[in-house]
Specification:
Elements (H helix, E strand, L loop, with lengths): L1 H28 L7 H4 L5 E2 L7 E2 L6 E6 H7 L4 H4 L6 E5 L5 E5 L11 E4 L2 E2 L20 E8 L3 H4 L6 E7 L9 E7 L3 E11 L3 E12 L9 E15 L2 E16 L10 E17 L4 E16 L1 E3 H7 L5 H9 L12 E3 L5 E17 L2 E15 L9 E18 L2 E12 L2 E16 L2 E12 L3 H5 L2 E4 L6 E5 L8 E14 L4 E21 L11 E24 L2 E17 L6 E3 L7 E10 L5 E9 L2 E3 L3 E3 L2 E14 L2 E10 L6 E2 L6 E2 L2 E9 L1
Parallel strand pairs: 6-9
Antiparallel strand pairs: 1-2, 3-8, 4-5, 6-7, 8-9, 10-11, 10-40, 11-12, 12-13, 13-14, 14-15, 15-16, 16-19, 17-18, 19-20, 20-21, 21-22, 22-23, 23-24, 24-27, 25-26, 27-28, 28-29, 29-30, 30-31, 30-32, 32-33, 33-36, 34-35, 36-37, 37-40, 38-39
Length: about 700
């Protein structure tokens, strides 16, 4: 057994190295195109997400990872969260067969929060769930042009949702993606995916329409299938030289089976979803120094869980009697009405939400040494849920935001950034999140950065108003999930970082290093209160309190080596040492948080273009052991994926083929939950461009 494990892990190391060696040999033995002028004069990448204004990566006040279409194709990613494995310090995992999640610097459960996720600059964070439900966001991997990830708090630019970081997914432009595309993916878990996209351009307008259908059967032991339908429309309208209007809208519908895979006998229940979003941005050039932008966003989500009668629910209860159940009803903590009466969802993800967001931005660049942006925003959120916000009807939050950033370059090699976000909300105290940073160019190719950030995270609608009593979806007893805490205060973060960036412009290779400390105080924590005096009612009452704190000290790097246009290596590593604790309340000791974040995560992606059409890539992922807040203790794992891509020209069409083998050496590992086993999985992709 030990020998088999050693051979598999040895091969998982050799395979990327083999591609590296093969790529080096190809440089000598395979006829390849010469470097073009564009290859030679690669400039410093431009980024947007750190401050809301375009600036050089070497002048941004934060560490940023950019994942291109090329990176995404080489990874063979089937889910957006799979792409995030190539981000230093990011942990991506499958909560169940079809629910995926991503968190930055661990300390998470099956609903990770504290990280803003945006599509073309607009938020898809869900106040009803305090997280992102990736299957509902209205786009797929095929729609992505590139992804920018701000590693570290970006609350000074995007508010409290970006407490630990921010992800901005930029979708494909119809101008650069003009072919019609028809695609399908078939493979493990009886997965079937079908997609189509069409782009059109004219003198003043360009648009891209895409549709996607996906389903699979899930795991045999849970029969937890999945279905999702997505339609997305994006485009640009330029009525004049000074005006640009960008629009993006999408709809998604389907179902997913939810449950906890920590027991082989657990029941999974279906949750249907319908979502849509509309996003429009108008940018107007006032003159050579001033630009004005107005953005409006609307998000809608409706979640429907399967219902069961209260009488049927009672028949499954193991630890509670009728008298105790009636106590809960009499206390008006649930909506059952009577034991034999109305119905109750099996799970908790049931309800609707709306988000409206309006922002005004003004950019002022008086000269090459100073660039500024400031803006004012208003956001309105509303949510209604019979299970998460019981007997409260529709709850709302109104939030005003004032934000800004100034970049000043007193010297050619020195850049200062100062910015912040002031947020005033109807459900929590107002606060200001500032950031200061200085970037100094040691040489034309290398830059050092120091920055300090103070950030606050206000409670979401759910965290502030959560009130529920529902049946465990394992078919067990009633579980008082939450009651509101009127005294809940914002979470606080104090962060310092030292960064180093070096680029080899001739080839596009680079090295990015970040050393950091993050101190989180007043963190939200589920605190138990035995208000009923009935120990058999699971854990009695739970409510969020500011009773957790921790500190991260660590370092992370990303390195790209591209000695030749047809061969590249992209790798990252993160080390995080976490020390912290939380008070769990009634009948519980102080809980250490030291092992709630993986100490080591790493990824390695190698790609070799063997011929003009054939590409071979291998991706290896590693995560050390971790004790997730919800999924409990998981051992370390290594996983190697192999991707073979080839294309064939058929008259005026191109057929792209791809074989994706995940977990190539079939080393099954427990992903988040004990019975959520990730074994070897193979997929075939076909795409016709015409």
């Amino acid at each position: 057994m030990t020998q088999t494990w050693t051979v598999k892990n040895l091969l998982s190391i050799i395979l990327p190295v083999f591609i590296l060696v093969a790529g080096a040999e190809a440089k000598e033995n395979t006829p390849l195109p010469e470097f073009t002028e564009e290859d030679i004069f690669i400039d410093i990448p431009q980024v947007f997400s750190a401050t809301r204004q375009t600036q050089k990566l070497t002048e941004a006040p934060a560490s940023i990872t950019i994942l291109s279409q090329k990176d995404i194709r080489a990874m063979g990613a089937l889910k957006i969260t799979d792409v995030l494995r190539m981000v230093p310090g990011m942990q991506s995992y499958n909560v169940t067969a079809n629910r995926s999640a991503a968190t930055y610097h661990g300390m998470s459960d099956d609903h990770p929060g504290r990280m803003e996720v945006m599509i073309n600059g607009h938020s898809v964070y869900l106040p009803l769930l305090s997280t992102v439900a990736w299957e509902t966001i209205g786009i797929t991997v095929q729609d992505i042009d590139y992804i920018e990830v701000v590693r570290g708090s970006n609350a000074p630019a995007y508010g409290s949702n970006a407490f630990l970081g921010a992800i901005n997914i930029v979708t494909k432009s119809p101008i650069s993606d003009q072919n019609n595309k028809l695609s399908t993916t078939q493979g493990a878990l009886n997965s079937q995916q079908y997609g189509f996209s069409h782009s059109e351009t004219s003198d003043s307008i360009a648009y891209r329409l895409s549709t996607h259908f996906e389903e699979n059967d899930g795991y045999n032991i849970y029969d937890d299938g999945f279905l999702n339908r997505v339609v997305n429309l994006s485009g640009t309208y330029t009525p004049s030289f000074a005006d640009t209007i960008d629009f993006n809208m999408g709809v998604s519908s389907g179902f997913i089976y939810l449950g906890q895979a920590d027991n082989i006998d657990n029941n999974f229940s279906p949750r249907e979803h319908e979502s849509n979003f509309q996003h429009i941005r108008w940018n107007h050039i006032l003159d050579a120094e001033n630009e004005l932008g107005i953005r409006f966003t609307h998000n809608y989500l409706d979640l429907e869980e399967e219902f069961t009668s209260a009488a049927s629910a009672i028949s499954h209860i193991e630890k509670i009697d009728i008298q105790s159940a009636q106590q809960l009803i009499n206390l008006n903590i649930n909506n059952l009405g009577s034991i034999a009466g109305t119905q109750q969802p099996l799970g908790s993800e049931h309800g609707t939400m709306h988000l409206y967001d309006l922002e005004l931005e003004h950019r002022y660049n008086p000269n090459s040494n100073i660039s500024t942006i400031w803006g004012l925003g208003y956001r309105s959120e509303s949510a209604k849920s019979d299970t998460l916000l019981v007997n409260q009807g529709t709850v709302t939050e109104d939030k005003w935001r004032l934000f800004g950033n100034v970049q000043w370059k007193p010297l050619q090699q020195l850049a200062f950034n100062a910015g912040g976000m002031f947020e005033s909300t109807s459900i929590a105290a107002a606060h200001f999140s500032p950031r200061l940073a200085a970037n100094y160019s040691l040489t034309p190719s290398s830059t050092i950065r120091v920055s300090a950030t103070k950030a606050y995270r206000t409670p979401s609608l759910l965290e502030k108003n959560g009130l529920s009593a529902l049946l465990n979806n394992s078919g067990g007893y009633y579980d008082l999930v939450a009651i509101p805490n009127p005294d809940l205060e914002p979470e606080e973060l104090t962060s310092y970082e030292l960064g180093y960036f070096h680029q080899w412009k001739e080839t596009g290779s680079f090295l990015d290093i970040r050393v950091f400390t993050e101190k989180i105080d007043n963190a939200f924590n589920s605190y138990y209160i035995n208000a009923l005096g009935v120990d058999d009612v699971d854990d009695g009452y739970r409510m969020l309190t500011n009773s957790a704190k921790w500190k991260n000290i660590g370092a992370e790097f990303q390195f790209k080596l591209q000695p030749h246009p047809n061969f590249s290596v992209l790798t990252n590593y993160s080390y995080i040492n976490t020390k912290g604790e939380r008070d769990r309340g009634y009948g519980r000791d102080i809980d250490s948080l030291d092992d709630r974040t993986p100490m080591h995560t790493a990824a390695l992606l190698t790609e070799w273009k063997a011929t003009n059409t054939l590409s071979i890539s291998a991706a290896q992922y590693y995560m050390s052991k971790v004790n997730w807040l919800e999924g409990s203790h998981r051992e370390q794992y290594r996983r190697t994926d192999l991707i073979l891509s080839d294309s064939f020209r058929l008259k005026n069409t191109v057929l792209n083929t791809r074989l994706i083998v995940q977990n190539l050496f079939d080393d099954p590992y427990e992903d988040f939950y004990e019975y959520n086993i990730f074994d070897r999985r193979a997929y075939i992709q076909l795409q016709l461009d015409f």
